[in-house]
Amino acid sequence: MTQYLPVRGRKVRILATLGPASATPEMIGNLFRAGADAFRINMSHGTQADRIPLFKSIRALEKLHGRPTTILVDLQGPKLRVGTFANGPVTLVTGRNFQLDLDPRPGDEHRVCLPHREVFQALEIGSRLLLDDGKLVLRVAEIGPQAITTHIEVGGVLSDKKGLNVPDVVVPLAALTEKDRSDLAFAIDQGADWIALSFVQRPEDLAEARRLIGGKAALLAKIEKPAALDRLEGILELADAVMVARGDLGVELPPEAVPPAQKRIVEAARALGKPVVVATQMLESMIKVPTPTRAEVSDVATAIYDGADAVMLSAESAAGDWPEEAVAMMDRIAHSVEGDRGYTARLHFTKTDADPTTADALAAAAFDISKTVSAKAIICYTTSGSTARRIARERPDVPILVLTPEMDTARQMGLLWGTHAVHTRDVNSFEEMVAKAKRMALRYRLAKGGERVVVMAGVPFGTPGSTNVLHVVRLTGDELKGYQS
């Protein structure tokens, strides 16, 4: 029997990463009930076979609660790594030289293999190389066809297969590795709603992923390279959403440069009406303890005040000791921020000018009208989701109820600010549109008798991109009487 849950009492979405600490159906259900709107499946760890039960558990949960639930599959991307060492970890001493080369033999304290010829082609004298999430810093002194000589600026211990970041140049790596292509095909077969592309550097990086997805999922670009900031607007134009991936971005940028970059990405995405997710270390201390630091709470709150569509938990929910508590804490922070009297004013610091189209003009009008007549919700009929995205860009004070005949569209709404999606049959007439909007407003307790809702749709009905109707409806409270869903 379907156990309908009420509409979330907040606008920002919560994206929870699944992992060893949250891989059981019971825990996934607990995370959902604690506030998770969407689930991230990270393909950097484990096997494809390990992921199949996660998909099944989420879809079973979706059926149980009658609520379309979002699955985002995060591809590993072209991660650069050094090779192995002959006798275990080595210590790189500050001030000495260290060689990176194409020799596949195990390394020592003087050299190690770097099996990425593309890096050799891209580097310049003076370029920085960051190892092990930026803990070690090398500066390029000489570049040869088979080896790079570097000067160790910040030394430390280096072990097998540690990651390498190259912040100062664009490395001509393919955005998708062979593993990524296989994982992407697997994700589409399993019914993923969003595909996250890692280490995007330029708009062109999105082209192959878009082609392979073939319209079967939406595409999110992770902004974690400084080069991506230089071409942010072009990336946003081609992506369906973006993520402020502060992990690698925080390695390659100076720490003090990350907050301005985050604000810039959020503002640019909001201006274009593209969902934006803020991620990494949001409640990091909750990996080990049941409460966050005050600084972490402030960090989450800042992203919400800035108008991010979603905030994400990584290791907190994937591998931590308190996954359910981390989701519940993020939910409480969101409720607190959105209940602040100054929240709306802060939210609208970012200008989101409407494009010169009928649909955008109506979305802006729906926002204004909902305030003027004190409407309790904006209800939109949509096939592709574009109407919902236009309304969400305006950041209205009231919930956005999205009614769509497309389950794929309904599921993708889990990353879109302020929305509650319902998969339902399309309507065929103006009268049916009004009647269904009234019923849904009552069923989901968004309004009651005597209150108004704003309805947006397109005529002819069922035609994508035809939004041209805005209607204000007053409920009587009797609309559900005698109606069988």
Any idea of the CATH topology of the largest domain? TIM Barrel
Taking Cα atoms only, what radius of gyration do you get, to the nearest Å? Answer: 24 Å
SS element count, helices: 17
Strand content: 15-25%
Descriptive overview:
The structure is a single chain. The protein has helices at residues 25-34, 48-65, 117-122, 178-190, 205-213, 226-230, 232-238, 246-252, 258-272, 294-305, 315-318, 323-338, 343-347, 358-372, 386-393, 407-412, 430-443; strands at 13-18, 38-42, 70-74, 90-92, 97-101, 111-113, 128-131, 136-143, 147-154, 156-158, 164-165, 194-197, 218-223, 241-245, 276-279, 310-313, 378-381, 400-404, 419-423, 452-458, 467-474. The protein is an alpha/beta fold. The chain folds into three domains: 13-78 and 175-345, Alpha-Beta Barrel (TIM Barrel), CATH 3.20.20; 90-165, Beta Barrel (M1 Pyruvate Kinase, Domain 3); 358-474, 3-Layer(aba) Sandwich (Pyruvate Kinase, Chain: A, domain 1). The strands form four sheets. An eight-stranded parallel beta barrel has the order 1-2-3-12-13-14-15-16, surrounded by eight helices. A six-stranded mixed beta sheet has the order 6-5-9-8-7-11, covered by helices on one side. α1 runs parallel beside α12 and α7 packs across α9.
Topology:
Layout: E1 13-18, H1 25-34, E2 38-42, H2 48-65, E3 70-74, E4 90-92, E5 97-101, E6 111-113, H3 117-122, E7 128-131, E8 136-143, E9 147-154, E10 156-158, E11 164-165, H4 178-190, E12 194-197, H5 205-213, E13 218-223, H6 226-230, H7 232-238, E14 241-245, H8 246-252, H9 258-272, E15 276-279, H10 294-305, E16 310-313, H11 315-318, H12 323-338, H13 343-347, H14 358-372, E17 378-381, H15 386-393, E18 400-404, H16 407-412, E19 419-423, H17 430-443, E20 452-458, E21 467-474
Parallel strand pairs: 1-2, 1-16, 2-3, 3-12, 5-6, 12-13, 13-14, 14-15, 15-16, 17-18, 17-20, 18-19
Antiparallel strand pairs: 4-10, 5-9, 7-8, 7-11, 8-9, 20-21
Helix pairs in contact: 1-2, 1-12, 7-9, 10-12
